[in-house]
Amino acid sequence: MDSQQSRVLVQLRDMILKGEFVPGERLAEIPIAEKLGASRTPVRLALASLEHEGLIEQSPGGGYQMRRFTSQEVADAIRVRGVIEGFAARLLAEDGAPRQLLRDLKECLEAGDRAVNKPSMELDDYAAYVEMNDRFHKLIVEGCGNLALKRVMDMLGGQPFAAPSAMLPMQSSMEEGQQWMRQAHRTHHAMVQAIERGQGSRAQALGEEHVEIARMNLDYALERPELAAELMPGIRLVAKGRGS
């Protein structure tokens, strides 16, 4: 994949997850190419990749259209991410994590502590936590050295709201959200401890348990669609239930 196609793919995926398209909207190559300042060929290839990822679908009239996702699809992707990340943590625990990786993970823990362990969090603290959280999960997945696992995670990362920070707490008050983030960050600490002590089964269980917070926040978002849409416009693409 050349650099222009990669750039277009990243831009289009970001637009989808930010809710810039509505379910059923036709994704025409020419307007998208003009908006992104690209030629039609990388747009066409990017659209084909997005269909393969399950983000869009073929339109009855030809080309592609935006699809709607069920809450079950999103919840399933979140749970699968937990299984995969848990296995990555187990590999690190059983194989022995490199010292530099442990140092990097502990830097993440310290950054998270600074963000959540204060009387009240500001928006900048929330942003800092998101950055830390993304880095923490990336370190575990890439650090385990399993290329097949990493490829699966890359694919899951393209699914709506399955990425590590996609379903961070969006409660009605910053105080309530801070409590959820503190709980999530305590699990980060426990995972690193299990990895460092070589406790593979515990590390895996913690990784799987960790994503339950994201799944609960999905339920919260669907129960409070007006609030969720303000914080995460793309949630409009998700419908309750199993059917599309």
From TrEMBL:
By its UniProt entry, which InterPro entries does this protein fall under?
GntR_C, TF_FadR/GntR_C, Tscrpt_reg_HTH_GntR, WH-like_DNA-bd_sf, WH_DNA-bd_sf
Give the keywords, sorted. DNA-binding, Transcription, Transcription regulation
Q: Which residues cross the membrane?
A: none
Q: Which domain of life is it from?
A: Bacteria
Q: Which residues form the HTH gntR-type domain?
A: 2-69
GO function terms (MF aspect): DNA binding; DNA-binding transcription factor activity
Q: What's a Pfam family in this record?
A: FCD
Extract the PANTHER family matched here. Answer: HTH-TYPE TRANSCRIPTIONAL REGULATOR LGOR-RELATED (PTHR43537:SF51), TRANSCRIPTIONAL REGULATOR, GNTR FAMILY (PTHR43537)
Spell out the protein name for this chain.
Glc operon transcriptional activator
Per the UniProt record, the source organism is Variovorax paradoxus
**Species classification:** Bacteria, Pseudomonadati, Pseudomonadota, Betaproteobacteria, Burkholderiales
